[in-house]
């Protein structure tokens, strides 16, 4: 009781357990019998002091003294506190709200109800056959480790005026393809542009509307082979030797978010670079190179983990014995990423790569560029060279007669590798989600298991791609409709 005779009783346990019961008190504006004790949930307290008034019938009541400003304000403060605590409790309740997403489990082929709480999968419950009728497939969202840009947005190409809004635009466009995690990839360019764009990406990755879809970045070059063919579409004037000080400047610009670097192991300084990056936990990938078996094996011993888009970034004419393909396939410590868009590799190439590396050592990647999502036609790149996007979806660089990245997201690659190799849907999703999550130590995603992020896709199996119906990030529906 305070000096004005108002009683407050706060029940903080009730705040946790039951909304609306943050505390209770007798409303002093409501008359009650004089001398009658107040109560709350069985707890009693002394009668309020106040003005007594006799009503017809002889009953004596207590009336709260509203003419006392100090007392009135204290009463108002109590109401305000109650309202604030109630809103806080409601917000906590909404955040903890469970949602369920139903589908046919991509690996078990059983109908399941995935329960999501606080952005994570809390449990997976079986459904009856009747409940599972006509449900779409459900799987963890796809993870793409090589995205140069999308839908007119470039992360690194020439004169780019990349903005945070551009990153959001590209991300949302990829959600339509079931890609819930990706590594923006910055290809060979001058130091100033790479530094500028890494800083922009570092800010954008933490935007709440992206739901953590960007865990880090892929630096593809500039430390690659300068030789035509092996260099691919990377601009020759920006290809350079390994420079550790330059790289550390780029690493700082990225706010230490460069997760992987693709380089040529045969260039000067590469081995020392590989060892230093591996010590820092940065995944080293071998790509756009013409390294020997000895150089490839040495790179693997020093920590290199994967070969970037194997079969591409390679000259059209190579020695049938001495070439970079065989030693990369033969080295059991190296995984491979492959572009399964129907253009970058022949079917028999994919079959051989898969037969050697199996699903355990294979990652599906897209290598999509800013030209992906645009209508067919001829375009000029940042250097004024013609790039051609065909009706079929093939993107080519006519001047060198090589491909110029891809225009096809990996939801197509998942189905293409199934069609070409005969692998199961579970194996294809493993290569398109679980394996990259494991490689980059993204232990919170890439699997349909309790405790993992609720990054989920609902889809139908189309003839040449996953037909995405709905995409969820941390349990939030970001594309499609709730099924």
Question: Which radius of gyration do the C-alpha atoms yield?
Answer: 31 Å
**Coarse morphology:** globular
Helix vs. strand class: alpha/beta
Q: Percent of residues in beta strands?
A: 25-35%
How helical, in percent, are the residues? Answer: 25-40%
Largest sheet: 8 strands, parallel
User: Count of helical segments?
Assistant: 11
Q: Provide the low-confidence segments as ranges.
A: 1-55, 59-67, 90-95
Lateral arrangement of strands in the main beta sheet: 12-15-16-17-18-19-20-21
State the total count of DSSP E strands: 28
Mean pLDDT, to the nearest integer, reads 85
Ends apart, CA distance between termini: 55 Å
Protein architecture, described:
It is built from eleven helices and 28 strands. Helices cover 28% and strands 25% of the residues. The longest helix is centred in the first third of the chain and has 27 residues, at 69-95.
